[in-house]
Hints:
It contains ten helices and twelve strands.
Amino acid sequence: MKKKINRLMLSIAILGVLLISTFLTTVFYGLFQSQVKTDIQTDVELLQETGIFDDPSSPGMPIQVRDVRITWVDVDGTVLYDNEADARSMENHMDRPEIQEAFRDGSGWNARESGTLNRSTFYYALKLSNGTVLRASKTAWNFYGHLLGMLPAACVVLAVIVIASVLLARALTKSLVQPIEKMAETLGSPDPVPAYPELAPFANRLRAQHDDILRSAKMRQDFTANVSHELKTPLTAICGYAELMENGMTGPGDTERMACQIRKSADRLLSLINDIIRLSQLDSYEEDLPFVSLNLGETAEEAASSLMVSARSHKVSLSVRAEKDVMIIGREEMISELVINLTDNAIRYNRPGGYVHVNVLKKDGKACLVVDDNGIGIPKEQHDRIFERFYRVDKSRSRETGGTGLGLAIVKHIVMLHNASITVDSAPGIGTSFTVEF
């Protein structure tokens, strides 16, 4: 940004000097032309008043006019007199534009390049009362000569302006950037004040992104710590039981019991690994994969039916009710996983004789999936945290039932990927109801 401002200021300075120099040269050259014309016109009119050019038959009187050439032309174009050359050796002047204009209109004006580089000769011709034409001419710098003449001064001015622009650009850049840098340093403060009012939306967006990054970093850190802890528990149990069996420290009935515990710990370890892999897949899910039209009722019935055996083993009744033709746009395997996770939680955190209802219906034009139960319920103060990874309402019961603490985190991911919303209504001892609106 600093370099860009410096380059911009320098470019503006150079362009400004060039434009001003060209403009002033154009203006001054126009004034100069007007002045030259006035001068030689005045000279011709003064010479006319002297009476020297009244008689074409006696043109021999010498005339001294500084820096001005005087030429007297007869009615047929013959040069009668010239103060800088021998008139007898000069060619006929009838073809000169200013002479022709003077014979025709009474006076003529012209300017043309001379043989000298960057110089022009200015002519003014006046028709006298005797029919002859008196012409005065003066050689001076042309436009490019004036421009080149101003070049040294323009270079000096340009150098001064460039130096001033560099110093000004540095000062301006510092005054502009320093408050922004200070704001960046205090971005983590609760309410950093923007350096400029125009930066308020940018600062708010940047602060939100900063907070999101910190939150994401903390979530990853917590997730890593939780994964380490969750994996360590079953691995420790497996190693402990295996060591006891290896060293022959088990009794006649212990081997079977320890093998059962090893299998349970291994199952838990496998469930954790599968859920962690699934969360990683959902985190890196490619949004350009196609979603298709799905019958939500049919998908929910098929997914819930796979949990009938689990429901019976927990002595919980499981039912599915679905309205016809409740269609959504999504990924079938994700919707099945969502139904299975919600239904499995409702079964695990229930009580013998309890129920789980899976309902699919239309509500206010939206497709809805409702999973409710009359299980142990969730305290209201924990409703906002149940979708966090490894968060458990009842940690001891979760481990007893084989829960990993990742099921609802997976559900939340799937809901977000489908631009849906999920709400929970629950109270301890009454039950829980999850509603997903597509």
